[in-house]
Design goal:
76% helix, mainly alpha, 1% strand, 22 helices, two-stranded parallel ribbon
Length: 529
């Protein structure tokens, strides 16, 4: 009997060859510890770092609480009950995902400013000395970020609740538990992997945020990294701080793994869970609460941006070059991400079960959990080393670290997970019989790929391209820190105007970016229906 041929090893080597450049930014962060400025660290430890670390941890904890309550609550009511306006609110609750957190932050800073409409109306009603909180600070940052991040928990928890059916609820009720106790003891434990995953995504987004916390005057680790690099002019110190933030991200991922434990996603019930009608004041209370969240997280920011842009219609800032830069950067990064995702997916299918290929894919996909500030510092440290190596080799000066290549590199590492997930989902829909039939007819491999695989993958590739494009267009810290001098995107223009308190000037590019952000949300809504 002829022994089975050993699987080829070249896919493993190819996967690690592709993964190595994407791993270099994180690896080179540790190199920053070779140059420790003790005087600068003494200044940071005394004046900046304790408050930044406390604010970062407080922000993460508060945000976790603020996204869990509406995310789980609306997901459960949507899956279990039928209340007034549910069909509209089911998808409307996803809309806040379209608006970047830093846009919501500057909108509410403008609304709650002393001379803004909210504070002015409040003083007119209750006297000249009356005032409301201005939204700044850690609590305000957590609330504003929660308005746009709770849909992560809502989407994943709702899908798990619908998939679960009525088995867990019925079992808990049969043991004598009331509706509330049955939910907490029966439903939540069985759907834990889903809502913990959504919660982790929200917390990681909060840890990575730079624009919102900066505009709200909250010092966190991300703003401290930026200040160390551009304010104190110490790239090694920024790399050391970025390494610490990376360790905090790793801790969050570890906590997620421990929180999941050995739990598995609830299986689909044998019988669907019927929605019970929620009538009277209970149904209308749920509808009003859901409407209020949609208004605060989507309608009010979009309305305020539109009114500001209309008020300044005679002198709107010229954002054409920034918009073209944004589209060009998004298109280039999307093509690069999809190409890498396709290569990893094809290598995984060329060597199924190969642990080396799987490990390389898993590690590069962790880039989505790494904040943009960390990737920017890591990419800069690595590219500066590469510049020195090329200069010694060729005798010529290179400018890799101050080019568009650096931005593309960081964005590809950050959003490869988004493209890879879409490509993997598309590959899962392929029927192996089609490829086997083509192979039996001696169709060349490249013809099988271009004539069969690519057309069948097109819907998934389009969806992945849409998600990556919008994520790249909204990304602020990596683009801000690595861009060539004078090269702006819409996100950078928004941040620059908002940081100066120029709300009307910031409104026009923010409105454009928010409307583009509706595209992946529209796709998500279609998938949910």
């Amino acid at each position: 009997m002829t022994p089975a041929a050993a699987p080829p090893r070249w896919p493993r080597y190819a996967a690690w060859l592709l993964a190595l450049p994407l791993l270099m930014p994180a690896a080179f962060l540790a190199a920053g510890f070779a140059d420790i400025d003790t005087a600068l660290w003494a200044h940071l430890s005394r004046h900046l770092l304790p408050q930044a670390l406390a604010n970062t941890l407080t922000l993460a904890v508060l945000l976790a609480a603020f996204v869990l309550v509406p995310g789980l609550g609306f997901a459960w009511v949507s899956a279990r009950y039928d209340y007034p306006g549910r069909r509209v609110l089911d998808w409307a609750l996803v809309l806040p995902l379209a608006i970047p957190g830093y846009v919501v932050a500057f909108v509410y800073v403008g609304l709650l400013d002393y001379a803004g409409p909210v504070q002015s109306a409040w003083r007119a009603w209750f006297g000249a000395t009356a005032s409301l909180p201005n939204g700044r600070g850690v609590v305000g940052a957590a609330l504003m970020l929660a308005l746009v991040l709770y849909p992560y928990v809502y989407l994943l928890a709702r899908a798990a609740f619908v998939r679960q059916g009525s088995v867990a609820m019925d079992a808990a009720r049969s043991l004598g538990h009331g509706p509330l106790a049955a939910f907490f003891r029966g439903v939540l434990p069985l759907t834990r992997p889903a809502w913990v995953a959504g919660l982790t995504l929200a917390v990681l987004e909060a840890l990575a945020d730079f624009g919102a916390v900066s505009l709200l005057g909250v010092d966190t680790l991300t703003t401290t990294i930026y200040r160390a690099w551009f304010g104190l002019y110490s790239l090694p110190t920024a790399a050391q701080l970025a390494f610490g933030l990376l360790a905090l991200v790793a801790l969050v991922l570890l906590l997620e793994r421990l929180a999941r434990g050995r739990a598995r996603y609830a299986e689909r019930s044998l019988r669907p869970q019927p929605r019970r009608p929620l009538r009277g004041w209970r149904g209308w209370t749920v509808a009003l609460l859901a409407t209020g969240v949609v208004l605060l997280g989507f309608a009010v920011p979009l309305w305020r941006l539109a009114t500001w842009a209309w008020s300044a219609r005679g002198g709107l800032p010229v954002v054409g070059p920034a918009a073209l830069n944004t589209l060009a950067l998004g298109a280039l990064a999307t093509l690069l991400v999809l190409a890498l995702a396709l290569l990893f997916a094809l290598l995984a299918r060329r060597a199924p079960g190969d642990r080396g290929v799987a490990a390389a894919s898993f590690i590069v996909n962790l880039g989505y959990a790494v904040p943009g500030t960390v990737l920017a510092v890591g990419a800069m440290v690595w590219l500066v080393r590469v510049e020195g190596w090329l200069a010694g080799l060729t005798g010529a000066q290179w400018a890799l670290s101050s080019s568009l290549l650096a931005v593309l590199f960081a964005l590809s590492a950050r959003f490869l997970r988004v493209g890879h997930g879409a490509v993997e989902s598309a590959f899962a829909t392929l029927r192996p019989s089609l490829l086997e039939t083509a192979r039996s007819l001696a169709v060349p491999a490249w013809r099988r790929f271009t004539g069969i695989v690519l057309p069948l993958l097109r819907p998934g590739l389009v969806a992945g391209a849409l998600l990556v494009l919008v994520e790249v267009m909204k990304e602020l810290p990596a683009t801000l820190m690595l861009r060539p001098f004078g090269w702006d995107t819409l996100a950078i223009r928004i941040y620059a105007y908002a940081a100066e308190g120029l709300w009307m000037e910031a409104a026009w590019p923010a409105l454009l970016l928010s409307l583009v952000g509706l595209l992946p949300v529209w796709w998500l809504v279609r998938q949910q229906r």
